Amino acid sequence: MNEQQALTPLAAGGLLDRRAFLQRSLSFSVATLVSSEALATPENGREPWMEKPGAPFSNYGEPAAHERHVIRWTMGNDKALGNGVSWTPLQNLEGIFTPNGLHFERHHNGVPQIDPKQHKLLIHGLVNNSLVFTLEDLLRYPMHSCYCFLECGGNSNAAWHSEPIQTAVGYFHGMASCSEWTGIPLKLLLDEAQVKGRAKWLIVEGADASMMQVSIPLDKALDDCLLALYQNGERIRPENGYPMRLIVPGWEGVLNVKWVRRIHLAAQPVMARNETAKYTELLPSGKARQFTYVMEVKSLITQPSFGYKLPQPGIYQITGLAWSGRGKIAKVEVSADGGKTWLEAELQEPVLSKCFTRFRIPWQWQGQEAILQSRATDETGARQPAREHLLAARGQHGYFHYNAIVSWEISAQGEIKHVYA
Ligand SMILES: Nc1nc2c(c(=O)[nH]1)N[C@H]1C(S)=C(S)[C@@H](COP(=O)(O)O)O[C@H]1N2
Ligand SMILES: [Mo]
Predict the structure, then answer these.
(1) What are the structural domains of the chain?
(2) Is 105's C-beta closer than 6 angstroms to any atom of ligand 1?
């Protein structure tokens, strides 16, 4: 404890130098002290699993039996079966990539059971060559990986409620996941179709029974969109768009059409239900926002967070995720005193554009009440707003695009609550 007492916080509330972890200058003293002789005897610590052969090989691996509680929470809609969501349990995960079985889901009418031999992609409309691609055709094209987050425009919408929701971070902000998506740059396929000069929009449709269409500006499609066939190295999971989906890096989830079957080149957007009645926002001025495509800069602390209890005063690692649909994360600042003072956290490499970025900072908790917050800034200089500023700009009754600072209140007993600070 002597060593710990000597540490000098760099910000109020006990935040320590972000480099302290790397320099190994922190003494955690969490492990139990033992004498080395006691461990050296052959009989010591011989558990049953050291006495006989282990389980056989398996064709496809599963998480450890003791980790089966790490699941997506699902929420269906009784009145419209097939319409619902499931959340990524961000509080249980580390690093930046989401395991495929835990990627969030948002379906408007369930998961279609597509026969990949029957599925085709049509590119037509304002093109010189209307083209049809089978999966077999597409697998012969040169591929490219995009490491990017995918976030539903409605993610974090509980934060618009007047009272802070008390639930785990993933079941509130977990309509966001991050993967390596691999497939064919859309530009390659559009160039082959020879897009006509008058075309300004892509109208895209999936092969599920949701009857959805979305409009995507041609410039974005030519810039960095991907027709993805693989998700973290394996073929895309049925619930995430098997056998192919669109990836629109950094833009709202709904544009990332799953089970994509048709791309129509047009001069105008289609003005479908989901881009007029939905995914638009009435502002305090009475005007509505539409085609609010970019997911703005955002961050949250995943550990410690709601549902955990700090066992005793001591040094803790604060860690979380930051992302921006406009590019790379430039910095993440953390506050342990409800936003009065801030200190820059360490960003874990690699820091990639439009991708989850993991941040970490050491914190010495001395048993006091505290409010933990994180605030991200992206490479364009855009900074995550305080909740009051977001509400002032967008009104009290928002639903989409919530990206304000998230606050966790620590009690003197180490219990953690979600608060609006
Ligand atoms: N065909 C189709 N594409 C779709 C949807 C859908 O219901 N049908 N949902 C959209 C929405 S609203 C989101 S947020 C993302 C979710 O992708 P995921 O389920 O892989 O996380 O897919 C989008 N693409
Ligand atoms: Mo969404």
Answers:
(1) 120-289 (3.90.420.10), 298-419 (2.60.40.650)
(2) yes
